[in-house]
């Protein structure tokens, strides 16, 4: 296949995605490993959504969990098929529009996951710290409006950033040494005012990632303090078990996300950055539902009932 690669100061009409470097054998092995993980991710996340839609898991917590699973599916799907192509063909060309859409999708679904995890922590806070008013506060209308607001807010924010980056076109080198179209290569080649772009990026990072994380941590401090006040150890253990799976998912998600954006993306660490990006795109969507399946009794019971009726 013929690819057009240019590092001259010309207008960019398409990008060339390098993906991973290495031997052909290594790439083939990675290709099949990624396919297996991707299929498993689609299966377990679809299972969570199916259990909620099938009325096996009917509570606000699992409503938000089903939305988290949907975001996981869409996040991995926006990257993995194209990444598999880079492994087979030693790179992949992408039109500017396709690259921009991929960037938008990755940011959009990442931001949505941050807010869904925040909504889930809010739900656990109400259930444990304010149980007498939980039913009256977390009504169906309430959590439907909350989910709609999350999707709309994140969509509007990321759409604004995307338009700001790409509205003046791209100029420079069209090689992207990464596994997908991320912020850094697009902003480096954007003709837009980089000061405005960086300022908007910092603002959105605060709104979509940092503030939700602080809210989650504050919620769990309150939850832990409330649990410690419970008189019997059995009730304390039961109260903590209702939110332990969510806390594990939060730590896993933010841990990988922080690693992804703190490791330098240039020089010798570029392969480390690619590996972390792959873990984030491929493994995080798989780990989230698995953690809930293994650590949450409600999910285990619902899955057992579903399997018993199916077989």
From TrEMBL:
Gene3D superfamilies, alphabetically? Rhodopsin 7-helix transmembrane proteins (1.20.1070.10)
Q: Where in the cell is it found?
A: Cell membrane
Q: Which residues form the G-protein coupled receptors family 1 profile domain?
A: 34-292
Transmembrane stretches in the record are: 28-54, 61-80, 100-122, 143-165, 202-228, 240-263, 275-294
Membrane topology designation:
Multi-pass membrane protein
Q: Domain of life, per the record?
A: Eukaryota
Keywords for this protein? Cell membrane, Disulfide bond, G-protein coupled receptor, Glycoprotein, Membrane, Olfaction, Receptor, Sensory transduction, Transducer, Transmembrane, Transmembrane helix
The record, for PANTHER family, names: G-PROTEIN COUPLED RECEPTOR, OLFACTORY RECEPTOR
Can you say what this protein is called? Olfactory receptor
């Amino acid at each position: 296949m013929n690819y057009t690669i240019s590092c001259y100061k010309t207008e960019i009409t398409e990008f060339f995605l390098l993906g991973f470097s290495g031997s052909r054998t290594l790439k083939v092995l990675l290709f099949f490993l990624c396919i297996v993980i991707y299929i498993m991710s689609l299966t377990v996340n679809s299972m969570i959504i199916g259990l909620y839609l099938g009325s096996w898991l009917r509570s606000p917590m699992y409503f938000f969990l089903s939305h988290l699973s949907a975001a996981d599916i869409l996040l991995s799907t926006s990257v993995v098929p194209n990444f598999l192509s880079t492994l087979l063909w030693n790179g992949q060309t992408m039109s500017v529009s396709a690259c921009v859409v991929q960037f938008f999708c990755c940011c959009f679904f990442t931001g949505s996951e941050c807010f869904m995890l925040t909504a889930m922590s809010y739900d656990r806070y109400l259930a444990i710290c304010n149980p007498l008013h939980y039913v009256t506060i977390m009504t169906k209308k309430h959590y439907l409006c909350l989910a709609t607001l999350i999707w709309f807010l994140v969509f509007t924010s990321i759409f604004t950033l995307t338009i700001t980056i790409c509205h003046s076109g791209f100029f420079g080198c069209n090689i992207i040494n990464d596994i997908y179209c991320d912020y850094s290569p697009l902003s480096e080649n954007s003709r837009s005012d980089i000061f405005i772009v960086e300022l908007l990026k910092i603002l959105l990072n605060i709104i979509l990632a940092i503030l939700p994380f602080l809210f989650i941590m504050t919620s769990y401090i309150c939850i832990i303090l409330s649990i410690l006040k419970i008189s019997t150890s059995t009730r304390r253990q039961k109260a903590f078990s209702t939110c332990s799976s969510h806390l594990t998912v939060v730590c896993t998600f933010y841990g990988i996300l922080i690693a992804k954006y703190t490791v330098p993306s240039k020089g010798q660490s570029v392969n480390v950055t690619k590996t972390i990006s792959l873990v984030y795109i491929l493994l995080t969507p798989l780990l989230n539902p698995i953690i809930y399946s293994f650590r949450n009794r409600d999910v285990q019971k619902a899955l057992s009932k579903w399997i018993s009726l199916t077989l």
